[in-house]
From TrEMBL:
Residues 11-308 form the Acyltransferase domain. GO terms for molecular function: O-acetyltransferase activity. One of its GO terms (biological process) is enterobacterial common antigen biosynthetic process. It comes from Sphingobium nicotianae. This is Acyltransferase.
């Protein structure tokens, strides 16, 4: 570990986001096919799913916290970030609801009119990520010292242990997403506040990847997913991903592809379910005998390429802000703030 100036841009972070968003899309697609009864849930697939869900979104949250600190202490940064994230959350939650309700009999997770009423505070599908980013960013603005950031992360994880919310019924999920997600934003903020640079060591990355795999195997063996007690293993997995992203620079085409995915990660995250699941439903209807592997590849391609094309078109037409793909044009953010 060594000091790293905040002004230095670490392009491995962009490629790590690319790896993470590809994993998110891949395993949302496979889960969709499994839930629809089109793909058998084999032990190998179950293990891979548990492993992926132990690092992909968590990696995003740590990177978001790292990049937001220390600007999160400034009021205009908070105003713009919170307003932009919530606008994007509400817009695409509503669009998703409007698309899914008429096809309630065709989708894996149908929505109701009651879901529309609760959208402002109870997320549907994968849009919980945006609410967690909002809460984490708000806390970064209040907790500006390393010890406070780490202590708060540990406290949230302890409070968010599944047993604490066993009797809360439907509120269980809505609360746990914050207690399980926000700590990763705070840990990212701590990394930034500490001024430490993560050294990409291949052997250390292999050990960390093996540790996460072992934890995922243990959770999978118990029929569960990785939880709050497994956070050290999740962070180890995030480190392994960062190292892989760093060394991907040695393969220019791979690095370019990961950079592309990283740059468009927000659009992909927002739109991949609509694009991927939408094509799956169309294929089931129009080509019921299509090979499952081919159908999955087509759905995966649509879930990755579709959002990128949509974002490029939106930018060409000047609609990126309106569609929540760019921050709202208010309270311009400062570009650089010195770390205390």
């Amino acid at each position: 570990m060594g000091a790293m100036p905040q002004a230095h841009r670490d392009h491995a972070l962009d490629r790590a986001k690319g790896l993470a968003i590809f994993a998110v899309v891949l395993f949302h697609v496979t889960r969709g096919f499994v839930t629809a009864g089109l793909l058998p849930q084999t032990p190998g697939l179950r293990f891979a799913d548990t492993l992926a869900y132990g690092w992909h979104v968590q990696t995003f949250l740590v990177i978001a916290g790292y990049l937001a600190f220390p600007r999160a202490a400034l009021g205009r940064f908070q105003l713009r970030r919170q307003a932009s994230l919530y606008y994007t959350y509400l817009l695409w939650s509503l669009i998703t609801w409007l698309l899914l309700v008429p096809f309630a009999s065709k989708v894996n997770t149908p929505l109701t009119w009651q879901d529309l009423f609760w959208i402002p505070v109870v997320p549907i599908q994968h849009f919980w990520f945006l609410l967690v980013l909002m809460a984490g960013t708000a806390l970064l603005g209040l907790l500006r010292s390393g010890p406070l950031l780490l202590a708060s992360a540990v406290l949230l994880l302890a409070i968010g242990h599944p047993s604490v919310f066993d009797d809360l019924g439907p509120a269980n999920y809505s609360l746990q997403i914050y207690f399980h997600g926000v700590p990763f934003v705070l840990i990212g903020g701590w990394l930034s506040q500490s001024g430490l640079r993560v050294v990409p060591a291949p052997w250390a990355a292999l050990i960390c990847a093996a540790a996460l795999a072992l934890a995922a195997w243990g959770a999978n063996h118990k029929g569960a997913e990785l939880g709050p007690m497994d956070v050290p293993f999740m962070l180890a997995g995030g480190y392994a991903v960062y190292v892989a992203a760093h060394y991907s620079a040695r393969i220019p085409r791979l690095a370019a592809a990961l950079d592309l995915l990283g740059r468009h990660s927000l659009a992909i995250y927002i739109l991949h379910v609509i694009a991927g699941a939408g094509l799956r439903i169309i294929l089931v209807k129009l080509a019921p005998g299509l090979n499952t592997g081919i159908a999955m590849l087509l759905s995966l391609g649509a879930a990755v390429i579709g959002p990128i094309v949509a974002e490029l078109i939106a930018r060409r037409l000047g609609l990126a802000v309106l569609l929540g793909l760019d921050p709202l044009p208010f309270w311009s953010e400062p570009r650089k703030v010195a770390t205390a």
